[in-house]
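The protein record filed below.
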Amino acid sequence: MKLLKSHFWYNKSQRNGIFLLVIIILIFQAIILFSDSSSKKIIDINTSEVVAFQNQIDSLKRIELEHRKPKRYPFNPNYITDYKGEQLGMSLKEIDRLLTFRKTNKFVNSKEEFQKVTKVSDSLLNKIALYFKFPDWVVERNKNLQSGINTITSKTKKYRGNSYYNTPKHIITSTDINKASQEDFKTIYGVGEKLSERIIKYRSKLQGFSLNSQLFEVWGLKKEVAEKVLKTFKIVEKPIIKKENVNTVTFRQLLKNPYIDYELCKKIFDYRDQVAELQDIKELINIKGFPVDKYDRIVLYLVAE
């Protein structure tokens, strides 16, 4: 008890001092409180400086939003998927019309045809048609149709004074599809500069056409156009192709076969390791996953010896 009294027992002067100290503390707190409230200033947000700063912030926000928007790249409208069509703003009915049309193995070759098939509005067409990218031969054909020039027969009419004259039609140098020139192929309706060039390049890749059906493999060449080509150009002389021995050919050499990709090449080598040696080239059909429909083309370049 004496210990507690020693800590909490004060004389009169001590109590007065403590009381004065408490009053001083309260006065200081009141001063601080009132000085803070009085120091707050009302900022006018309508000043020219604030408005200019806010406009700059809004401008930066708009730029950032533009950067966040997904970029659009040129695309062929014939291959629009449900997801892509929805991104472009097309309705499900419009997308279904296009997909139904494509199931008939037909293509739209202009924005007008696209609108005719899908029935999209003019506003949407003008918005997305900027990104349409058709094959080069389609673009070339559309230009020729618009200008009224018949590039198929290479025959044009030019006007001089009061008379017309015709440029001479190209004379085909050979009807052998393996000897015909690029200009020869261009005489066929539907074959322009690009397609004729592709036919020549693909012929070189194959070392010459051995089968008529190989012409249908040329990228971008429509079936009906290929049939027209084959009415004029035939396989007169079959190409002489150097065949590789499937039992000794290297992996890299086998990949040069235009009908063999990496996966098939690996399967052939795995099978060769299993049997040690192929006795007959027909054994390729025994390989699991072998493309039987391409057998007659693949064996043009292979032999089992």
